[in-house]
Amino acid sequence: MKKNSPRFFYSVGTRYDAIKKSDLIKARAINDFLSKQQMPPLESYQSVSIIVVKDNKQTNFVALSTDDKLSKSQIELLKAADFSTNILVRGDYEQISEETLQTKYDY
User: Fold this and answer.
1) pLDDT (tens digit, 9 = 90+) per residue, 69-96?
2) Which is nearest to 45 in space by CA: 29, 66, 28?
3) pLDDT digits over 6-37, tens only?
4) Using the 8-state DSSP alphabet, how is residue 7 labeled?
5) Residues near 70 by Cβ (< 8 Å), separated by ≥ 6?
6) Under 8 Å between Cβ of 27 and 88
7) What is the distance between the alpha carbons of residues 29 and 34, in angstroms, rounded to a whole number?
8) How far is 5 from 11, CA to CA, in rounded Å?
9) E strands within the chain?
């Protein structure tokens, strides 16, 4: 290696976070899945989607709610998931930008 060559670092990590089945069954809100560090500062949720992922693709097995609380269909979907089921929990939310004080929608 040349003396002035930049150093190259590469890291491989998991795409998914693991959650215990017992925690899935107890979940009643999106906050039950995410830590405070993972949560962006937000005003409100527009919707929360729970989507089953199979072969790295989103399937048509989707359950929705209109706020941060899980709906009955979402809770049932989580209860029906077996130990190898991959799920995507997506929250569409509204936040106020600290820089512009304008409302911004994101997920």
Assistant:
1) 999 999 999 999 888 888 888 888 888 8
2) 66
3) 665 555 555 667 788 888 889 999 888 776 77
4) P
5) 27, 28, 29, 30, 48, 50, 78
6) no
7) 10
8) 19
9) 44-54, 57-65, 86-96, 103-106
- Give the largest CA-CA distance in the chain: 62
Amino acid of residue 91: G
Given the DSSP bridges, would you call strands 44-54 and 86-96 parallel, antiparallel or unpaired? antiparallel
- Kindly tell me the burial class for residue 48, based on how many C-beta atoms sit within 10 Å of its own C-beta (0-12, 13-18, 19 or more): buried
Query: Helix, strand or coil for residue 72?
Result: helix
Q: How many CB atoms lie within 10 A of CB 30?
A: 21
C-alpha–C-alpha distance, residues 43 and 55, integer Å = 34
